[in-house]
Amino acid sequence: MNYDNLLGACSGNQGFPKHLQHCDTKKGNVSIKINPTDKNCETLVKFKSSGEIYSDNEDINKDIDDTLNLNMYQLVKARKAVLDQALKMFNHKHRGKWTKSIIQKEINKWSAHGRYDKYQRYCRIVVFYFEKKLRKNMV
Fold it and tell me: 103 vs 108, 117, 137, CA distance in Å?
């Protein structure tokens, strides 16, 4: 038995035309280069503030765009909306104070959204944004 393709996945517009499908529905039985259970997985996938996902690895980028269709318009728009709302709430709450401790609290909040078993939808783009702020010492 080969369990490489046995992962939890969303139904990604199942029943819609192929160009509107994403995630596991679009992927079907095609193998992808990245293993989502790999602890280094999150270092290989990046986000743009526009809501797009990308990788510096050409094979992974092909999986993101072609195999999984993760940059389809609706997903990009949804990720951007979550990031925009998170930044709006952050700026309202902290009045532009970008200290390391405040940013770390935001990362912790969005990483598990207060509970170990429930993540907020599209939370990774927000976590990525704040982690990037910390790394660039823009505080």
Answer: 9, 22, 11
